[in-house]
């Protein structure tokens, strides 16, 4: 007779797994990323991958989050129909208890990113609940659990289509990825759910992202199924797009493409596409009567790349003038020192509402820089927790008004800017810089002081005044409106290889 799977096994296991994945990348991800780093020829992409690898190693040693976006909690539970459980609460209640406990863990608090009332006030629930759960009843007497922390930037780039049965899935995916931009923080993984119904396709795409990365082995042995053939074709074709790490142009955009399929209606070909970012985090365990045990990876897994020092021209944010701004070259690496402000989605919305009402902004942005970030809370002697950039594209619609009304001169974030924002940057002689998405712990080490100065009710979205020293960034849009996210990928795009 099988042994009892208790509530404590489930709740403790999920809570521990959430803590574990906040600071340990999956080993297969590091192996694949290290190989991509070794073979990358684009200098900017190599530099970005180096920072991601150094950050990952630092996070593993410091047991602090890889990325400031510690994700929404996604849990996939398969309950064996013969499993013996003593559960009395709903799965949602048990998983939420685990999430609450993991995200409030004193030694490594994680960022609460979930907002309630998505159509209304969007109030942060402050404990990162509720979790997203997929459940299945399967044969057997065990309970299988996969825990994943999914970043918002990559989730935002999800796409779905119902193709005609005669259409090419590969063509649709390549076309779609070519237009995704870099907000999903490549290099990462693309998950595809093909067939089923519309909801089934999306659920498959989400779940398949948790499968081990085995593209190197698949390329070596060759495809045996239609799904594997599609994976190989997409791996080659997506990487030939030249998007590269952080969209800077390079040879590796995806480390793997995972495909799940299911029978579908004769009239339909549903396809769901979900990217996973450079902060891919998930862990699987099985419960059959004992608490799960998680073994930390050995540090020899990571290439020893030192501290990933960036080098670059030093820029003093406290004496920023137009001549310095006009001298910035797209692609140039800078080390920023001085005072700047943080502000992301909710703070931008409020600031623009204040401008519309003719009110003064709560901070004086004239001649200053704003960093699009929502940091993790500090712990121990830290000044701030991991604090990497968020996707700037979401701030585009606020940018023209903010630049015009405040005299703001520099914006720091990640990924490309759209035409509207680039035009405003050019018009106001401003510039846009990027930090490496997914290198949050590393970036936080350049922050010397931090204090909230406005909108504290917004939690991690409050405005902070921070002081940085040698914060590494790259010029992404200069005062003339030239963008590295256009020039980089154009340079590294290759002809699509012909596959056998
Ligand atoms: O919320 C964040 O900090 C980042 C977000 O995941 C993003 O990539 O835009």
TrEMBL record:
The keyword Acetylation does not apply. Its EC number is 4.2.1.2. Gene3D superfamilies: Fe-S hydro-lyase, tartrate dehydratase beta-type, catalytic domain. Coiled coil: none annotated. Catalyzes the reversible hydration of fumarate to (S)-malate. NCBIfam families: ttdA_fumA_fumB, ttdB_fumA_fumB. One of its GO terms (molecular function) is fumarate hydratase activity. Residues 14-285 form the Fe-S hydro-lyase tartrate dehydratase alpha-type catalytic domain. Belongs to the class-I fumarase family. Residues 295-486 form the Fe-S hydro-lyase tartrate dehydratase beta-type catalytic domain. It is an enzyme of class 4 (lyase). InterPro entries: Fe-S_hydro-lyase_TtdA-typ_cat, Fe-S_hydro-lyase_TtdB-typ_cat, Fe-S_hydroAse_TtdB_cat_sf, Fe_dep_fumarate_hydratase. Its cofactor is [4Fe-4S] cluster. SUPFAM superfamilies: FumA C-terminal domain-like. Keywords: 4Fe-4S, Iron, Iron-sulfur, Lyase, Metal-binding. This is Fumarate hydratase class I.
């Amino acid at each position: 007779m099988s042994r009892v799977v208790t509530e404590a096994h489930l709740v403790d296991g999920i809570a521990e797994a959430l803590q574990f994945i906040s600071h340990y990348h999956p080993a297969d991800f590091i192996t694949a990323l290290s190989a991509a780093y070794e073979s990358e020829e684009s200098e900017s992409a190599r530099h970005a991958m180096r920072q991601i690898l150094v950050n990952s190693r630092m996070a593993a040693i410091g047991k602090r989050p890889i990325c400031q976006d510690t994700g929404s909690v996604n849990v996939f539970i398969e309950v064996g129909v013969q499993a013996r459980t003593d559960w009395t609460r709903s799965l949602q209640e048990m998983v939420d208890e685990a999430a609450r406990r993991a995200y409030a863990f004193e030694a490594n608090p994680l960022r609460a990113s979930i907002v309630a009332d998505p159509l209304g006030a969007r109030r942060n629930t402050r404990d990162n609940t509720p979790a997203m759960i997929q459940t299945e009843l399967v044969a057997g007497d065990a309970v299988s659990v996969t825990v994943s922390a999914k970043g918002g930037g990559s989730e935002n780039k999800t796409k779905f289509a119902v193709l005609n049965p005669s259409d090419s899935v590969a063509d649709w995916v390549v076309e779609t990825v070519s237009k995704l931009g870099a907000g999903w923080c490549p290099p990462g993984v693309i998950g595809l759910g093909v067939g089923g119904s519309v909801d089934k396709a999306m659920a498959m795409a989400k779940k398949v992202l948790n499968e081990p990365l085995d593209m190197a082995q698949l390329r070596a042995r060759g495809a045996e199924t239609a799904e594997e053939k599609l994976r190989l074709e997409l791996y080659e074709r997506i990487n030939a797009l030249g998007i590269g790490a952080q969209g800077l142009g390079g040879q590796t955009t995806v480390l793997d493409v995972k495909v799940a399929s299911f029978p579908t209606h004769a009239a339909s070909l549903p396809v769901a596409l979900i990217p996973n970012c450079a902060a891919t985090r998930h862990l699987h365990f099985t419960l059959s009567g004992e608490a799960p045990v998680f073994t930390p990876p050995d540090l020899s897994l990571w290439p020893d790349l030192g501290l990933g020092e960036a080098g670059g021209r030093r820029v003093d944010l406290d004496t920023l003038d137009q001549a310095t701004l006009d001298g910035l070259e797209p692609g140039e690496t800078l080390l920023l020192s001085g005072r700047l402000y943080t502000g992301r989605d909710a703070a931008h919305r409020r600031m623009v509402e204040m401008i519309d009402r003719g009110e003064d902004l709560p901070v004086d942005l004239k001649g200053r820089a704003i960093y699009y970030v929502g940091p993790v809370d500090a712990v121990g002697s830290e000044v701030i927790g991991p604090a990497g950039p968020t996707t700037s594209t979401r701030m585009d619609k606020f940018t023209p008004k903010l630049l015009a009304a405040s005299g703001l001169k520099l914006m720091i974030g990640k990924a490309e800017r759209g035409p509207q924002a680039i035009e405003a940057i050019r018009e106001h002689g401003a510039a846009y810089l990027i930090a490496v998405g997914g290198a949050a712990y590393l970036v936080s080490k350049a922050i010397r002081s931090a204090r909230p100065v406005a909108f504290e009710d917004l939690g991690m979205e409050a405005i902070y005044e921070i002081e940085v020293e040698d914060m590494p960034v790259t010029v992404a849009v200069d005062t003339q409106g030239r963008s590295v996210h256009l020039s980089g990928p154009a340079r590294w795009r290759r002809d699509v290889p012909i596959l056998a």
